[in-house]
Amino acid sequence: xxxxxxxxMGCQMNKSDTERMLGILSHFDYVETKxxxxxxxxxxxxxxxxQLSEDKAYSAIGVWGKWKxxxxxxxxxxxxxxxxxxxxxxxxxxxxxxxxxGTHHIYKLPEIIKRVENGEKVCECEESHKTEDEIAKNxxxxxxxxxxxxxxxxxxxxxxxxxxxxxxxxxxxRSRSSEIILKEVKDALAQGYKEITLLGQxxxxxxKDFKDRNYRLADLxxxxxxxxxxxxxxxxxxxxxxxxxxxxxxxxxCDKVCEYFHIPMQSGSSEVLKAxxxxxxxxxxxxxxxxxxxxxxxxxxxxxxIAGFPGETEEQFVETLNxxxxxxxxxxxxxxxxxREKTVAAKWVDKFIDEDEKVKRLKRLNDKVKENCxxxxxxFVGRTMEVLVENFENHKGKNVITGRTxxxxxxxxxxxxxxxxxxxxxxxxxxxxxxxNGELL
Length: 441
Ligand code: SAH
Ligand code: SF4
Ligand code: F3S
Description:
Layout: E1 2-8, H1 12-26, E2 30-32, E3 41-46, H2 51-70, E4 75-80, H3 81-86, H4 89-93, E5 99-101, H5 109-117, E6 122-124, H6 133-136, E7 148-152, E8 154-155, H7 166-170, E9 174-175, H8 178-190, E10 195-199, H9 217-225, E11 232-236, H10 245-253, E12 260-262, H11 270-275, H12 282-295, E13 300-307, H13 314-326, E14 331-336, H14 355-378, E15 384-395, E16 398-404, E17 410-414, E18 423-431, E19 436-440
Parallel strand pairs: 1-2, 1-3, 3-4, 4-5, 5-6, 7-10, 10-11, 12-13, 13-14, 17-19
Antiparallel strand pairs: 8-9, 15-16, 15-18, 16-17, 18-19
Helix pairs in contact: 9-10, 13-14
């Protein structure tokens, strides 16, 4: 058996792709190693959402190139979103790379490796307009986590927000067939997974591209909810305007679907949203979020925001800080705007915000996120909540289990036995910024 090591960067979609790649490779005499130095095949699954993520990819593999000088049989693969975008150019930048594999054809991996082993340099970055479901069902998936299974239901994106590279790295939106998704869900449940997370760049537009079938995310959630067993269902990421009342009602009706929505707002200013090509205003976003909050008890709503989008004024930035308060957003991912090749906003150089100012705004944004996160966590002190345990470790001399509530709050509970994979009841005893403390009941 040969050994493969895969370094994964970026979002859950990339992490899920890595699990699929490991599954495919396990059919072709490769076992996973966690130690890159032991590997015969080194692969990096890259992210290009920001310049920093792209730079990290190149710096991470620099050392691999050096190892290859003493180990000529070592093979190196450059995969994922940067690969999709840069294709053959990767070879110019890192001549020691043996193959470049974009995001559309991970199932060609066995054939690519065979060619590489025969001394060829291979680049496979053609865009595909189909999902690879037919091939996918023949491979098992080597999942990284033991409790939570990620299952992509759509790939790609059609929205072309003016700052975002994803439509270029992941291609047009394609929904996977519900039969294959259900098969993957059933397989994961049979293997003992307790939480199913349905993934998509816009998970709530699932099914819009089915020409001969009216079947949407709500239908899929209802079908998965009807499967036997005690488990949880989540779905990320939701595009605000695709959250229908039917979807909200489905979350309420389905006991296994958790009270958690990730609904990125990106900016609190309607003018900035327009420049970003988001299809809602501050007020329409607010209505959607208020609707979700009033209908779904204890719901956690999280968001993403960009600080310093080209042309963003101080007043517009303050509207973002205010929106976080007004809509009681429980947590948000944040980033300073980073210009990305090919995207529309990257051409608005004369409107770029000064780097120092962007950093300052990002810090103010993070402070606001922290403040609201603590406020949101405090609401649960004294409550009894169900926690799905994901981890057991000794922290500063004390044994602790860590898990999540249905509404996605992290809870640390002192406990001397490893309860990973179990649902436990905990009384919440305290709230910190990023987590809750609890006691077993
Ligand atoms: N499909 C999701 C987002 C996927 S990308 C949505 O529409 O909300 C994840 C996050 O990265 C985005 O929500 C955005 O906040 C951030 N992001 C994307 N492009 C960026 C850029 N050029 N600079 C900074 N942050 C960016
Ligand atoms: Fe990017 Fe916008 Fe698509 Fe999200 S919806 S992936 S931000 S283009
Ligand atoms: Fe990054 Fe690609 Fe995900 S650019 S955020 S890994 S879809």
